[in-house]
Amino acid sequence: MTPTSENGAENGARGASVIVNVLQVIRCFTVEEPLQGVTEIAARVGLHKSSVSRILATLEEEHVVERDEASRKYRLGLGLIAVAGPLLANLDVRRVAMDDLQALAERTGETAALAIWDGEAAVTVEQIPSRQQVKHTSVLGSRYATALSASVQAFLAAEDDERVRALLGSGRIQLGDGCGPEDYLALLADVRRNGYAVNRGRTAPDEVGVAAPVHDHRGCVVGAVLVAAPAYRVTDELVPRYAEDCRRAARRISARLGAVVPA
């Protein structure tokens, strides 16, 4: 092993050690003991008080902890919510959606799924597979960055046009052949107006997808409810029925998340 690689390994180990120390300090704050002083933390994690003080000073700058003026001890700060907030929101919508996804799968006889948006793609986080032998399913965690996917349409319809153009221009969202950016923006306007999106064989010739957006208490789109089915089973008459089924499920989930849902 060369000196360079040895130094790299040492630096990597040191960096990992610093991260572990920071996490240990954060974990000292509990529901039972929300206020912690430097001395208490140092004794608990086995670090020198000067090291704990430096970690707390950095965490305070990032608003991960804040100082209680009366006791001069520290408590967790609101900056931690900024880190954990997206995860908590996603976990919440997944938990809340389960019953309605099950009901949607039973009502339609097709696969019902829930997707969230990671900033560049729709990610499948829950799924109730169809009971039929031939069905469309996806692996949990699958990412969809194809613009014409029903779930992607549902999310991008909530974005402003400039953001959509930027995603298309960057190549992070793939726009299929035969649909230009302006055509796509017009399609998203229809999705906003109708409250649902349809992908009838535009990304895969043998699949139909219908999706509706889920909103939280702020009115933000935090998920998309999707029905996925083999194209041969979905007649023209079924598409609007599936769309309404998705909308109803999405409205019920949104209401549970505190969204103001029109009657």
Mean pLDDT reading: 90
Overall shape: it is elongated
Q: Give the class-level CATH name of the largest domain.
A: Alpha Beta
Quantity of strands, as a count = 8
Give the terminus-to-terminus CA distance.
69 Å
Which structural category fits the helices and strands?
Answer: alpha+beta
Main β-sheet, spatial strand arrangement: 5-4-3-8-7-6
Strand content: 15-25%
- Largest sheet properties: 6 strands, antiparallel
What's the alpha carbon Rg, rounded to whole Å? 24 Å
| Secondary-structure element string | HHHEEHEEEHHHEEEH
- Total count of helical runs of at least 4 residues: 8
State the share of residues found in helices, binned by percent. Answer: 40-55%
Describe the structure.
The protein is an alpha+beta fold. The chain folds into two domains: 3-77, Arc Repressor Mutant, subunit A, CATH 1.10.10; 84-256, Beta-Lactamase (2-Layer Sandwich), CATH 3.30.450.40. It contains eight helices and eight strands. Helix 4 runs antiparallel to helix 8 (238-256). Residues 1-5 have low confidence and may be disordered.
Structural features:
Arc Repressor Mutant, subunit A, 8 strands, alpha+beta, Beta-Lactamase, 263 residues, disordered N terminus, single chain, two-stranded antiparallel ribbon, 2 domains, six-stranded antiparallel β-sheet
